[in-house]
Design brief:
This protein is an alpha+beta fold and 184 residues long. Helices cover 21% and strands 34% of the residues.
């Protein structure tokens, strides 16, 4: 848990579902979402979306932001990679660095859980989110052109990631890492 001024970043709890669902509905936009707009009856938590996956930004007792971080895949060989699958900040508090704090908290949590890399997907036309992620050290690793059709427009799916360990320049790596033995 981190605290900065009057903002607290903390793990979600089951009793946070109502406030989290309200924020999720309020933050929904075709700028950032490919899933249908959530209804007032939609909850957040289910067997695939559990409280332990969410970090919340709480201001004056109100949930004003969240980030959801999960394993990238269920594969053991991919256990070292986590993925952000949701980030939202209430419009009334945008511009205060809450999104950045949530992303950094997700990076710290992933690192503490043994992850070496944190990835995410962002719509190509979501320039504000792309700028935020880039400013937090994420780089584009690939893109899928015209992956989604939203409101009659084709939108690219941009894959970004950030290493959570110290990066070793290839020319400073040990010889065995630069020239691994070939197998045939």
């Amino acid at each position: 848990m981190t605290r900065d001024d009057d903002l607290t970043i903390r793990p979600a709890r089951p009793e946070d579902e109502r406030g989290l669902a309200e924020l999720n509905r309020a933050a929904w936009s075709t700028l950032s979402d490919v899933s249908p707009e959530p209804s007032a009856e939609d909850g957040i938590f289910d067997e695939r979306h559990t409280p332990d996956q969410y970090l919340l930004a709480v201001l004056d007792g109100r949930i004003v932001g969240y980030v959801r971080q999960v394993p990238a895949t269920p594969l053991a060989a991919n256990r070292h990679v986590r993925q952000i699958q949701g980030l939202a900040v209430d419009d009334s508090v945008r511009g205060r660095g809450i999104g950045r704090r949530l992303v950094e908290a997700a990076c710290a949590a992933a690192r503490a859980g043994g992850a070496r890399k944190l990835g995410l997907r962002v719509l190509g036309w979501n320039t504000p989110a792309r700028r935020l992620y880039e400013s937090c050290g994420f780089v584009v690793e690939g893109s899928l052109a015209e992956e989604f059709l939203i409101d009659g427009r084709y939108v690219d799916d941009i894959w970004m990631a950030r290493r959570l360990t110290d990066w070793i320049r290839p020319d400073s790596a040990p010889e065995s890492a630069r020239n691994p033995p070939r197998t045939t």
